[in-house]
Amino acid sequence: MSEFDIIIKNAKINENTISDIGIRNGAIEKLGKLENGLKTIDAEGRFVLNGFVNSHCHLDKSNLLDKMGEGQFGKSLEENRRLLKELKSTYSKKDIEARASIAIEKMLAKGVTAIRTQVDVDPTCGLVPIEALLQVKKKYEGRVSIEISAFPQEGVVGDEKNELMEKAIEKGANVVGGLPLVEDKTNQKKHLNLIFEIAKKYGKSLDIQVDESNDPRTSILLELIKKTSEEKFFNRVNVTHAISLSRFPTQKALGYIDEMARLGMSVIVTPSANMITRFVEESDVWMRPSNSITRVTELCDKGIQVSLGTDNIRDIFYPFGNCSIIRELHMLISATRMTSKDHIDKAFEMATINGAKLLGLNYGIEPGKDADLIITNSFSKIDILNNDEIVPCTIKNGKIQYIDKSILRGDN
Question: Residue 315 in contact with residue 58, Cβ under 8 Å?
Fold first, then answer.
C-alpha cells in the first residue's frame, strides 16, 4: 500500500530548502526524501506555495463585460453603479452561476484555492445573487473554499434593505458586508450601526469597504475604528481598500494604524481595481484624477494582517481582470515599492497565509497543514513576479484540481 496519496518531488519550499512533500487524506503528512506515492509529481526545484487566496472579489458581477457596450467603459464610480443597476435588472440565477463558474475555473488554473466573494444584496436584485452563489459554493465544494459576504451594494438604511441583509445571512452568507459610501452622508454612521447590529445578532464577522478614494474628506475609517472599539469587536472587523490612509499626513495615518492593530482589525487590498477607480473630478486641491493604494508597508510593519484580492473581474468596475493573483502581486509590489526581501515575503504571505487566516483555513507548508498547494513555474519569488502568470499545478484538499503535464513530469 502506498504511504501517500501524492508526493511532490523536489519542491522548493523556501529560499534554502528543496524537499519532497507527502500528502495523505487532504493534509501534508511529511517532508523529506519520500517514496511510495499513488501519484508523483516532480517539481524539479520549482517554488511550491500554499494556494492563493482571493480574499475579495465579486463573483456575481464577474464577466458582465460581455453584456456591456463600447461606450460604457471608463466611467466614474457613481456612473458605474448606475449602469450596474440597469444590468442587474436582467439577472437570473442561471446567468450568475454560469458567469461565476467561468471565473472560478480560471482562478483554479491560476492557483487560487480559496475565495471570499462579496455578493450583492439589495432591492434591485433581491436575494437572487446570494441564492446563485450558494449553489455555486455547493458545486465547487472540495475543489475551492468559498466564503460568501452579504454585500449591501445599495446600502442598508431602510427597512427593505436591512431585512434583505438579514435574510441573506439566514440563507447561508458567512460574513456581513458593508459599503457606507453609497448612503447619503447623513446616513453613513447609521449604515455602520446597522451592519454591526446584524453581525451581533447572527454572530458574524464584518467585511466593510471604506475610503475608496485618495480624498481624506470622504473618509469614514475613523468612525469605523471608533465603532469597532465601542462594540469590542476585537479580531472581527476587516477593512477593504482604506485608500485615504495614503493621503492623510503620516503621523495621523500611523495613529489610525496603531489603533487598528490594537483592535485586531485586518485589511484587504485590491491593487489593480484600486488604481483604476475613477471619481467625478472636482477642481480643488484635494481631488486627484488618479487613485492610489493604502499604506500597505506601514500596515504590515505594524503587524496588521493584510490580505490580497482581485476585486472585480471583467465587469463594469474593472474590465481587465484575468483572475491572476500573480498579476495583483506585481501591481501591489510595483505601486507600493515593496522591493525589499522582507516586503516581498510579506506580499506573498498576503496572497496565501494571511488570506487563509481570514477564512479560517489551516495553511503552511509543514506536517498537519491543509494540502492546498500550488507548484509555480519559477525557482524564486522574484521570478514568479517576472515570469508569465503560469501555475502548472493546483492541489486542493490533497487532490489535483489542475495540472499542465507539458510542464510537470510525474507518475500516474
Answer: yes
Phi, psi torsion values for 158, nearest 5 degrees:
125, 140
CATH match of 4-50+364-411 with 2.40.50.140: no
pLDDT digits (tens, 9 = 90+) for 6-62: 999 999 999 999 999 999 999 999 999 999 899 999 999 999 999 999 999 999 999
Whole-number Å distance between alpha carbons of 307 and 127:
28
Residue pair 152/167 in contact (Cβ under 8 Å)? The answer is no
275: burial class by Cβ within 10 Å (0-12, 13-18, 19+)?
Answer: middle
The domain ranges of the chain are 4-50+364-411, 52-359
Model-wide pTM > 0.90: yes
Distance CA 314, CA 303 (A): 33
Q: Which grid coordinates are listed for 148?
A: 460568501
Cα(235)–Cα(238) distance, integer angstroms:
8
In the block, cell 464577474 appears at 62
Domain 52-359, CATH: 3.20.20.140
Contact 202, 176 (CB under 8 A): yes
Residue 285 has pLDDT above 60, yes or no: no
- Given a contact cutoff of 8 angstroms between Cβ atoms, the answer to whether 119 and 130 are in contact is yes
pLDDT of residue 81: 80
List the grid coordinates of 374. 500550488
Query: Residue 317 is placed in which grid cell?
Result: 468596475
Of 356, 240, 212, the C-alpha closest to 299 is 240
Query: Cell match 469597504: residue?
Result: 209
Residue indicated by cell numbers 503560469: 390
Residue 7 and residue 20: Cα distance in Å, rounded?
A: 7
CA distance 320 to 399: 30
